[in-house]
Structure to design on (186 residues):
């Protein structure tokens, strides 16, 4: 397992459009997922220990962000042929078990992950109301193990700031996680 960190935030970079199938049987797009004050695009998967360590907090934070007008969407771009735990059936099972308050989408072609420049799971892209990038950092101080209960809620605080001011924090700590599992070239 390769552990990577995300690049620094490229403030103002525009969110690439997408239309992807969700575990709910519906198609979801950039415009259908956004909220009036912004959008959090999350690249996650089922098998990554870094994602597992933050998933309960991620669900909590997304529920609260919805109340601030921030839409949230999770995208799974790994190749499930090599990582069966990331199969669509397991995506559906995890989404139901955790009661995801956001669409969980399959990026089977991996084109969306490439368009966003996603490098790891979890990888967070926080956009303002105009879909300009304002946050490219971590959820909190968690690694492969959950952070202490009193850990600073970095992503939540950043996205609350985006909702209130349209701007993300100048200081951001990169996310860390498992590399995206790219398909072998044909």
């Amino acid at each position: 397992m390769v552990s990577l960190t995300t690049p620094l935030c490229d403030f103002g970079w525009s969110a690439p459009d997408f239309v992807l199938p969700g575990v709910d049987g519906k198609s979801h797009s950039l415009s259908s997922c956004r909220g009036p004050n912004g959008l959090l695009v999350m690249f996650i998967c089922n098998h990554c220990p870094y994602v597992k360590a933050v998933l309960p907090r991620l669900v909590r934070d997304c529920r609260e962000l919805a109340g601030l007008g921030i839409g949230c969407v999770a995208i799974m771009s790994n190749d499930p042929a090599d990582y069966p735990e990331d199969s669509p059936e397991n995506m559906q099972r995890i989404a139901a078990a955790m009661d995801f308050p956001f669409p969980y989408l399959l990026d089977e072609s991996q084109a969306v992950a490439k368009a966003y420049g996603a490098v790891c799971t979890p990888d967070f892209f926080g956009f303002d109301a105009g879909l300009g990038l304002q946050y490219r950092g971590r959820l909190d101080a968690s690694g492969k193990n959950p952070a202490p209960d009193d850990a600073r809620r970095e992503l939540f605080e950043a996205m609350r700031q985006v909702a209130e001011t349209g701007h993300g924090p100048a200081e951001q700590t990169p996310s860390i996680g498992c590399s995206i599992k790219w398909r072998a070239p044909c």
The domain at 3-179 is CATH 3.40.30.10 (Glutaredoxin). The helical segments are 30-33, 49-66, 88-98, 111-116, 154-165. Residues 3 and 178 are 5 Å apart (CA to CA). The longest strand covers residues 70-76.
